[in-house]
Amino acid sequence: MDEDLGNRADGLRIRPAGERDIDRVLAFWREAAEGTSVTDDGAGVAALLARDPEALLLAERDGVLVGTVIAGWDGWRCSLYRLAVLPSHRRRGVSRALLAAAERRFAALGGRRGDAMVLDANERAHRAWEAAGYAPQPEWSRWVKPLTG
Fold first, then answer.
1. SS3 per-residue string spanning 67-132
2. pLDDT at position 149, please?
3. pTM over 0.85
């Protein structure tokens, strides 16, 4: 779990999250992520790690958690969620490094296309995704149904 997926000259380290990181990640998302999800709790993150132990990627600099992305692979699709960067570390290449690590993971697993969940109103995120080579796909919409009360 502590395997580095990328180290850069500026001290940024990318690695998969482990169970010991769950509380830290949840606190980070409350500070750095836009919006919340029904699965933003210890049980949700633990279930993700149990299902796909290398899906949640963390970016750290000098021991500080500065970014996350979930790079989920179900054998069919490469899905990206929860790309978040600490506000004080934005525009320093953190999201680009996280997405590059996610894309390497997907390629190694046989993935052919990354699909990202991005809030429509999050203009800052749109710019980050576009800079990384992603584009909206207007002919598709997300349909959801809550499975819990």
1. EEEEEEECCCCEEEEEEEECHHHCCCCHHHHHHHHHHHHHHHHCCCCEEECCCCCCHHHHHHHHHC
2. 64
3. yes
